[in-house]
Specification:
Elements (H helix, E strand, L loop, with lengths): L13 H14 L2 H4 L3 E5 L5 H13 L4 E5 L1 H9 L6 E3 L3 H9 L8 E6 L1 E6 L11 H8 L6 E4 L5 H12 L3 H4 L3 E4 L2 H10 L4 E5 L12 E5 L8 E7 L5 H10 L2 H9 L9
Parallel strand pairs: 1-2, 1-3, 6-7, 6-8
Antiparallel strand pairs: 3-10, 4-10, 5-8, 5-9
Length: 268
């Protein structure tokens, strides 16, 4: 099997990111140091800042948001990264941290995620929910580059691989893969036109203005394992982090998440 090609990426190495966060907390004033740091899955890149702004207006408390792949964040937390709250795109990662004794409890489901097909505006690939256009372009030799979040650590990439295997397209696509560090980067590849198409998070397609940059189609949920998104407080979580955690389960925050394409979890 050929190894996927990769475009230039902009992510920091785990160790560099860890040191950056430590330095940030070291140079903060005592008041600033109490502002909680939230590690959030990249599919929340557009929705969560809006939620955080509403939280600050309501409570007068602010949070610091860091976005990246859930798998990388889980590994950083295991290595001692000083986060207060972790919003994962895959509940299995939260469960792993809970089993390691790094969290206050098993966490709470805050949303269910969905996959979307992103077809660049200048691409000849037909956009459809059954991926027939993608299959036709592959067969005709007209597809050159296809973006995915890296399945090695990004839950959306793992579910995309599962879907493509079920459709019988994975092996043919492998030589054309361009792997993003996370869901947001994979979507950006398609939106920029640097790839023909890609699969990433539906929530990233819901931001205003993106419909002019790509053709985007919601993909069926039944073709892969569900993306159950769980959040959890870390053992060192501040009081403000606990308030933000509770706020995320409330009606105002849930309304924002649903507007960005997340599905609301079933009531507890």
């Amino acid at each position: 099997m050929m190894r996927p090609r990769a475009l230039r990426t902009f992510h920091l190495l785990d160790r560099a990111w860890f040191l950056q966060v430590l330095l940030l907390l070291t140079i903060m004033s005592p008041v600033e140091a109490r502002v909680p740091v939230v590690a959030a899955a990249a599919d929340l890149q557009f929705a969560l800042p809006e939620v955080a702004s509403a939280f600050e207006r309501t409570t007068g408390k602010s949070v610091r948001l860091a976005f990246g792949s859930s798998g990388n964040f889980a590994r950083q937390i295991e290595q001692g990264a000083p986060f207060d709250l972790f919003l994962s795109a895959d509940e299995a990662l939260v469960q792993r941290l809970a089993q390691a004794g790094l969290t206050v409890d098993d966490g709470q489901i805050y949303a269910h995620g969905r996959l979307a097909l992103f077809v660049s505006a200048n691409s000849t690939v037909a956009a459809d929910a059954e991926l027939r256009g993608l299959a036709a372009s592959l067969e005709a030799g007209k597809l050159h580059r296809f973006a995915l979040p890296n399945p090695a650590h990004a839950p959306y990439g793992q579910r995309a691989e599962m879907l493509l295997r079920k459709k019988g397209l994975w092996e043919a696509l492998t030589p054309h893969l361009v792997l993003g560090e996370n869901a947001a980067q994979a979507a950006q590849f398609a939106l920029s036109g640097s790839v023909d198409a890609g699969i990433s998070a539906w929530s990233l397609a819901r931001a205003p203005g993106l419909d002019t940059k790509a053709r985007i189609v919601l993909l069926p949920a039944e073709d892969r394992a569900p993306l159950i998104q769980r959040m959890v407080l870390l053992k060192t979580a501040s009081r403000a982090a606990r308030r933000f955690h509770a706020y995320l389960l409330g009606p105002e925050a849930q309304a924002v998440l649903q507007r960005f394409g997340f599905e609301r979890p079933a009531p507890l």
